[in-house]
Amino acid sequence: MNLSNVPPDRTLLDLLREDLRLTATKEGCAAGDCGACTVVVAEAVDGRLQYRAVNSCIKPAHAIDGLALWTAADLAQRDGTLHPVQQAMVACHGSQCGFCTPGFVMSLFALYQRTVAQGQTVDKHRAHEALSGNLCRCTGYRPIVQAACSLQADAAQAVDEIPIVAALHQLAATEKTDGHYLRPSTLPALLQARARHPQAQLIAGATDAGLWITQGLRRLPQIIDLTRVAELRRVEHYAHHIAIGAAVNLQDAFEALAVDRPVIAPFGERFAGWPVRQSGTLGGNVANGSPIGDSMPLLIALGVQVVLMAWRKGRTVHRHVPLDQFYTGYRQSLLAADEVLAWVVVPRPAPGEWLGAYKVSKRQEDDISAVCLAVQLHVQGGHIAKARIGAGGVAATPARAVQTEAALVGQPWNEATLQAAQAAITQEFSPLSDLRASADYRRQLLAQLLRRAWLESTGHTTVRLEALA
Questions:
Q1: If we measure between CA atoms, which residue out of 247, 379, 364, 275 comes closest to residue 58?
Q2: What percent of the chain has pLDDT over 70?
Q3: Structural domains of the chain sorted by starting position, each given as residue range(s) with its CATH number in brackets
Q4: What is the mean pLDDT of residues 389-417?
Q5: Cα(454)–Cα(145) distance, rounded to whole angstroms?
Q6: Among residues 5, 54, 51, which one has the least CA distance to residue 25?
């Protein structure tokens, strides 16, 4: 389908419902929280389709140009035969008031294509992960999870990927580097477009920029979308570090980080619901610089650097900036108007590293942190040789707890040192009181999360509720 005169900041949900009158996709929160608007997109990779469930309410319509799209209206066959995910929802009584059902069905469709259609089964963990971005206000989760776990492949309803892949390859040849919505496909093209249009809004997954449109009612007259830039869609592995491109989505980025540091895997699962992790990017989260963004405290604790790139005087220039020095104020950074945050460079763990990453929020999943704390320690001979601590939700920017680190380094890792560090961290930050937590509660959380780090790093195994289960 070819559409013209679509504003750059038009959301996919508004395009579907208001422009095309395709109302199977519902609007709930318009903030990427409830999942009622979930649709499935797919791109061609190595001759096959890769499926992702995304929130259409915060996804720019232009962002799916060149991708395949399914809504809840596209699943049943022409004769009315239900798709296996729809049939499973009916058989397990997974729909109550029905408003959230299209979104759940689309999350299940993406799960089905990733697993069941590939000969795999769905267990409860996979089901909960796939549905983590969908809310049911009737509290009907049990039958929906049951429907997910009961999915069976139906060869008669398999997606015929060959013509779709062929069509997507034809569309992929187009590149836009001027106009209202720019979509470069190479790094030089991106940097040159940025040099020509320093006032344009850079986006990746748009999980934050979408909120500026739907909640802040901001207009974005010109957008540069970097999600098609081939160089920035890669995770590159080196002897001493990995480099995560700015267009790598959060799910893939956390999986890459968890290879070296498995503790990051459960932390990444709590970052956001599945659709947000499939759309949002690590580079975008870092560049946006929200003080309650969960990735930055972790990355600060890991000693990450960001690579900033620009096109100047006919050539590419770049600079490396330590992440804990990148932010200059609330959602402000050292990024110049003509620069792009291109890479997140993560050191590999040194021998003896211990890492703890903690998030406290009102909901276990799909929620924003009240406090996020990440602690990296190197303990030698019972003494702390090195310490790096990143904190979120307690200052105007993601922050490094340098005073608390100073209270730890060189000291024996015991109760007395812990108490000194707890006193330091409660004095180091002056958090605000807001709807998520009071300032006093946030300070107490910082101190108690440090205690949790001490308990875990000294061998206690029943600190977390998951361990008790």
A1: 275
A2: 98
A3: 12-168 (1.10.150.120), 175-349 (3.30.465.10), 352-469 (3.30.390.50)
A4: 96
A5: 36
A6: 54
Task: Please report the sign of the dihedral spanned by the C-alpha atoms of residue 419, residue 424, residue 425, residue 427.
Answer: positive
What count of residues does the chain have? Answer: 469
Structure tokens at 84: 């296996």
pLDDT-based confidence at residue 1 (cuts at 50, 70, 90): low
CA distances from 193 to 63, 179, 224, 308 (A): 17, 10, 8, 15
Pairing of strands 201-203, 223-225: parallel
**Confidence class of residue 382 from pLDDT cuts 50, 70 and 90?**
very high
pLDDT at residue 304, as a whole number: 98
Rounded-to-integer distance, Cα 205 and Cα 141, Å: 28
Q: Residue 173 above 70 pLDDT?
A: no
CA distance 340 to 345: 15
Q: Which helix (H) or strand (E) holds 344?
A: strand 340-347
pTM of the model: 0.92
Q: Partners of 346 in the beta sheet?
A: 242
pLDDT of 174 reads 66
Both tokens assigned to 425: 């961290």
Q: Which position has the token pair 């904190």?
A: 391
Q: What is the DSSP string of 262-293?
A: TTHHHHHHTTS-HHHHHH-BHHHHHHHT-TT-
CA distance 294 to 358: 9
| Measured CA angle at 282 (ends 277, 287), to 5 deg | 130
Cα gap 107→25, rounded to integer Å: 12
Residues 397, 289 contacting (CB under 8 angstroms):
yes
Q: Which residue has the tokens 């995770």?
A: 235
- Phi and psi of 176, rounded to 5°? -120, 120
3-state secondary structure of 383: strand
Backbone φ and ψ for 274, nearest 5 degrees, come out as: -55, -45
* Closest by Cα among 397, 395, 400 to 431: 395
C-alpha to C-alpha distance for 329 and 331, rounded to whole angstroms: 6
Q: For the purposes of burial, counting CB atoms within 10 Å of the CB of 364, is it exposed (0-12), middle (13-18) or buried (19 or more)? A: exposed
| CA–CA gap between residue 87 and residue 442 (Å, rounded) | 46
Closest CA to 413 of 449, 378, 442: 378
Q: Which of 201, 252, 197, 204 is nearest to 228 (CA)?
A: 204
Mean pLDDT of 171-189: 84
Q: Rounded to an integer, what distance in angstroms lies between the CA atom of residue 263 and that of residue 356?
A: 7
